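Budget justification aside, the reviewers requested a transparent look at the raw inputs and outputs of the sequence design task funded under Objective 1. We therefore reproduce one unedited record. The lines immediately below are the structure tokens for a 221-residue chain.
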């Protein structure tokens, strides 16, 4: 028996040597480390972005005169961001000019990304543990108290405590890039990426014009 096992082991080793280890006919899918991405759901979030950009621009460019170039596209976000960024820059102490003469030009680009076939996204670490713990705690009053409805109290308390931290990923994102151009040189560029609700995508892109239906002309009556 021992001899057979030895022969089997030697044979397996020799057979394995005929092939290169750690190979694949195609790249193996892997995942990225868990990261976080904020979700933009209110005009206040646009103001937060404007404040963040204003602080970074002042830190980068100092007291250099700035001109904010209006966007070529008219959308709710673009209209609001023009005024919000102006207000935040003035508050931060920047010099804002109404013309581009003798000033660095600030511009921004907005791109909506729509994912058509996104796979499931992993729940935050600890989600299932917290859910299991909540169920376990809820069974204590259910099993020992006279009123079964009291079993809902621990879960309701947890929901009140943590509901503000709960949000969901969506299939649509927006990429907002702010740049500063001086002459022919880009002296500042910063991009921010956010989740958005699909129903809000028209805040960030111009609606496509509806094509007129063709009219068939005929001489027959």
């Amino acid at each position: 028996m021992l001899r057979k096992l030895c022969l089997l082991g030697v044979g397996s080793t020799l057979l394995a040597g005929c092939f290169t280890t750690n190979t694949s006919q195609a790249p193996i899918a892997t995942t990225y480390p868990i990261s976080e991405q904020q979700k933009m759901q209110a005009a206040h979030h646009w103001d937060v972005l404007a404040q963040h950009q204003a602080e970074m621009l002042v830190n980068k460019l100092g007291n250099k005169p700035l001109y904010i170039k209006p966007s070529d596209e008219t959308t709710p976000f673009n209209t609001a961001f023009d005024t919000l960024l102006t207000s935040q820059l003035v508050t931060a102490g920047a010099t804002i000019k109404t013309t581009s003469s003798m000033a660095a030009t600030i511009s921004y680009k907005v791109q909506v990304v729509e994912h058509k076939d996104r796979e499931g996204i992993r729940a935050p670490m600890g989600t299932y543990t917290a859910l299991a713990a909540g169920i376990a705690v809820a069974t204590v009053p259910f099993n020992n108290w006279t009123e079964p409805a009291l079993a809902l109290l621990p879960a309701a308390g947890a929901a009140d405590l943590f509901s503000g931290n709960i949000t969901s990923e969506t299939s649509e994102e927006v990429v907002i890039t702010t740049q500063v151009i001086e002459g022919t040189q880009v002296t500042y560029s910063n991009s921010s990426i956010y989740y958005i609700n699909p129903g809000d995508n028209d805040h960030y892109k111009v609606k496509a014009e509806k094509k007129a239906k063709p009219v068939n002309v005929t001489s027959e009556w």
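The chain has a mean pLDDT of 79. Helices lie at 2-17, 43-61, 76-91, 127-144, 152-162. Computational costs for records of this kind are itemized in the attached budget.
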